[in-house]
Design goal:
Layout: E1 4-8, H1 9-16, H2 23-44, E2 47-52, E3 63-67, E4 70-74, H3 81-92, E5 96-99, H4 103-112, E6 115-117, H5 119-135, H6 157-168
Parallel strand pairs: 1-2, 1-5, 2-4, 5-6
Antiparallel strand pairs: 3-4
Helix pairs in contact: 1-2, 2-5, 3-4
């Protein structure tokens, strides 16, 4: 099955935003994130879903849109994005890679069998993918990274699974 990347949206935009953001700045930061994810999707081809809090929106239903192949979900009024992320972790299980820095959500997803990656780590991956896109370099051409061989201190199964998933990103 194809990898499904689920992202805690405001968690990742917090890394991109300036400290005193207004609502307009927040929307532009959100749009910038979507553009970066679209470029990443063109490069890698993974299914990507971004979940944002719509808690104070007044909407009675979850809002779902698709923008350039990126599925965007806003939670309904009174619901947090964390609840949606936990629901998705229950249903997707091993096929899901969750991008969040929220420890409680990450722990819940890991117990369901999903792989979790911190927002900071994924932001670095996005930046390097953006660099490769601008330079026209594919992953196969990158000769600077060689896999380790013969390491007697094998990482835990959970850590190996996480590292393997990061390599696919």
């Amino acid at each position: 099955m194809a990898m499904h990347i689920v992202i805690d949206g405001y968690n990742l935009t917090a890394l991109m935003a300036s400290p005193n953001n207004t609502a307009l700045d927040l929307e532009s930061t959100r749009n910038e994130l979507i553009k970066r994810l679209q470029a990443y999707k063109r490069l890698k081809g993974h299914k990507i879903t971004v979940v944002f809090d719509g808690k104070k929106s007044g909407s009675l239903y979850r809002a779902r849109t698709n923008q350039g192949g990126i599925e965007i979900v806003f939670s309904k009024d009174g619901e947090e994005a964390d609840e949606i992320l936990k629901e998705m972790a229950k249903t997707e299980r091993q096929n899901m890679t969750l991008i969040t820095s929220d420890r409680s959500v990450a722990h819940f997803a890991e117990t369901c069998g999903a792989v979790t990656i911190s927002s900071q780590e994924f932001d670095n991956i996005l930046s390097s993918a953006q660099y490769y896109t601008m330079k026209g370099i594919s992953d196969e051409e990158d000769e600077g990274v060689f896999p380790k061989t013969g390491n007697p201190r094998k990482p835990s199964k959970k850590e190996r699974k996480r590292l393997q998933r990061i390599k696919k990103l």
